[in-house]
Amino acid sequence: MKVRATLAATLLVIGATLALAIAAGQADAGESPVPDPAGSTPRPGSAAAVQLEANRDPAVVAAGEQLYLTGCVSCHGVGGKGTPGYPSLVGVGAASADFFLRTGRMPLAAPAPQAPAKPPAYTDEQIIQLVAYVASLGDGPPVPDIRPERGDLTEGAQLYLANCAACHNSTGIGGALSHGNQAPPLLNVAPTQIGEAPRVGPGQMPVFGPDTLSDEQLDSIVRYVLYLQDPEHPGGLRIGSAGPVPEGLVAWLVGLGGLVLIARWITRERREHRRAHG
Ligand code: HEC
Ligand code: HEC
Fold first, then answer.
1. Which residue minimizes the CA distance to atom 12 of ligand 2?
2. 65, 75, 105, 131: residue to mutate for ligand 1 pocket, most atoms within 8 A of CB
3. Which of 115-119, 126-130, 155-159 has the lowest mean pLDDT?
4. How many Cα atoms within 13 Å fall on the side-chain side of residue 263?
5. How far, CA to CA in Å, does 140 sit from each of 132, 193, 210?
6. Worst-scoring range by mean pLDDT, 75-84, 170-179, 263-272?
7. pLDDT at site 78
8. Could you tell me the distance, in angstroms and rounded to a whole number, from the CA of residue 182 to the centre of ligand 2?
9. Taking 80 as the threshold, does the pLDDT of residue 277 lie above it?
10. Alpha-carbon distance 73 to 80, whole Å?
């Protein structure tokens, strides 16, 4: 009897610990954003900081100009002023150049209604040079310092469903738009480019400036798109990749369900006793 009570107490503790652990794993997935004392200054070493530094280096800008004169001038014109049928690059900013080059949309091989995404044509170093040159043509949005780890998964899901899902689908697989255009899938795009796209508004996609989506909200959206890309949670089970709701359900069922079962087991003898003696 005494042994049994001890065993029951131990099991109760294990059950409670398990429930707490599962619940903690849950909370972890949607942890609230950490305040950023540095504000909009990009973190040292981030893509945004590397590009900002390159933009200030005349040698990098000059190298970018050389690449521009061979790969881009035929369409975008001398000094990026544009040619008939091709857009000016003056003031589009580093964000646009970085986005179009890293998603392989530029250089365009042949005129197309929508420049397709493809593997980038330039090395990382060349892209930094070209972006620095385009940035030197006129003020425009910088490469954003995207920090998905600072974002909030739940907020990201809400913002994504409200602002992006109509075109890119709630699962990020993309979708057809009018005039034969396509909202591409987001399942293979790097974090910085996911964050750049709303700032740039490529093709038919609208621009979401900082007044519409703050940097923090952008981090949340990127965090959610990364979640769509790989809905696996570190430190948790997959549970059908169906998202936090079924995971919460499992935490409740396994955790609380387990506690109820243990409670019933502890009191079993008393119930049997009562049944036997009326
Ligand atoms: C064959 C013509 C062609 C070539 C070559 C080309 N582009 Fe483009 N570029 C375009 C067209 C057309 C668009 C508009 C496409 C779109 O919006 O989808 C565009 C759009 C862009 C944009 C977006 C502008 C904006 O409004 O935000 C950038 C940045 C850009 N190009 C950079 C480059 C760079 C850098 C190169 C050279 C590496 C290059 N392009 C080579 C035709 C070209
Ligand atoms: C009105 C429809 C529409 C909405 C709303 C929209 N997009 Fe897009 N998006 C597009 C289209 C169209 C393109 C392709 C543009 C092009 O290549 O010319 C695109 C491209 C992208 C890309 C580049 C993907 C790649 O393959 O390189 C990313 C990333 C992206 N969008 C993210 C977002 C996010 C995040 C949101 C919400 C904040 C959003 N989009 C809202 C239509 C939309």
1. 183
2. 75
3. 115-119
4. 7
5. 12, 16, 13
6. 263-272
7. 97
8. 9
9. no
10. 7
Measured from the CB, is residue 106 less than 6 Å from ligand 1?
Answer: yes
CA of 76 to the centre of ligand 1 (A): 7
Q: What is the pLDDT of residues 56-71, one digit of tens each?
A: 999 999 999 999 999 9
53 to 43, 124, 262: CA distances (angstroms):
12, 15, 61
Nearest-ligand number for the alpha carbon of 116 = 2
Q: Which atom, in ligand 1's list, is nearest to the CA of 133?
A: 35
The per-residue DSSP string of 27-62 comes to HHHTPPPPP-TTTTSPPTTSHHHHHHHHHT-HHHHH
Q: What is the 3-state secondary structure (H, E, C) of 112-157?
A: CCCCCCCCCCCCHHHHHHHHHHHHHCCCCCCCCCCCHHHCCHHHHH
Taking the centre of ligand 2 as the mean of its atom positions, its distance from the CA of residue 139, in whole angstroms, is 23
pLDDT score of 110:
79
Percent of the chain with pLDDT over 90: 62
What CA–CA distance (Å, rounded) separates 117 from 166?
Answer: 20
pLDDT of residue 197: 98
Ligand nearest to the CA of 161: 2
Among 66-80, 89-103, 244-258, where is mean pLDDT lowest?
244-258
* Closest ligand to Cα 95: 1
* Residue 90 in contact with ligand 1 by CB distance below 6 A: no
Ligand 2 pocket check for 128: Cβ under 6 Å = no
For 252, the token pair is 């409740």
